[in-house]
Amino acid sequence: MTAKIIDGKQLAKDIKASLTQEVAALKEKGVVPTIALLLVGDDPASKLYVNSKAKSTEEIGGKPEVFHLPEDTTLDKIMALIGRLNQDDSIHGILVQLPLPEHLHHYEKEIMNSIKPEKDADAFHPVNIGNLVIGDKCFEGCTAAGCMRLIDQAGVDLKGKHAVVVGSTIEVGKPITMMLFARGVVVTLIHPDTPNLADYTVKGDLLIVEAQRPGFIKKEMIKPGAIVIDAGTSYIDGKTYGDVEAGGADVAGWITPVPGGVGPMIIAMLMYNLVEAAK
Description:
Layout: E1 4-5, H1 8-28, E2 34-40, H2 44-59, E3 63-69, H3 75-87, E4 93-96, H4 108-113, H5 126-134, H6 142-152, E5 162-166, H7 173-182, E6 186-190, H8 198-201, E7 206-209, E8 227-230, E9 234-236, E10 239-241, E11 254-255, H9 262-278
Parallel strand pairs: 1-11, 2-3, 2-4, 5-6, 5-7, 7-8, 8-11
Antiparallel strand pairs: 9-10
Helix pairs in contact: 1-9, 2-9, 6-7, 6-9
């Protein structure tokens, strides 16, 4: 068996094309979807991510406003800026690029929680997460929502299927557990360090992995024909690796590549949240 590749690059492209049409319609009503991107310090990776998000916003016809603050910016200044952006009706989404400089690490949760839930483009605010848990309308985390879109590409009726989610971060494991559960899926959420991990993973009709451990999931740990979503990315000597070893494609029915799977979907879903906020 050779797995069908779920192409995240193409899906992200299709989503952005659809969003471009929605943005054009909003502009006719005088609304330009605008996102405030806050970058504190000069971390090269963070600058790259912010630039990519700004570029994607422009590609769909939206407007990015980048606020590049010095490394030594105080908590009070950041909170004051977010306060102003919260009150600015022309700003529809607010994103604070993480990680923040070391002196602000302790305040990351306070900073993120200060963003109005209706402008929380990343969907990390407790209100959005809480609404997801109870099943109310909310913004959904970009990575988890992207994973769900990729799963749907397999065209499989998910109701009654068994999903095994390895990893429980706020970006993937916890929210996607609730998203799958809402679709009638039986979900097993497990820690990557769980003893006899393969006893669990091999039972999954769906296997979603976010351990950030290159080649962590061996092919014998995958149920034949399963939908495998590899949300783990590691960089070693200039190369990108996923959590699922290359041989996993010989067993799975559908699988996301790394790179080119989950990665492109993250910004696509950020753009989706921005447009929803503008609407």
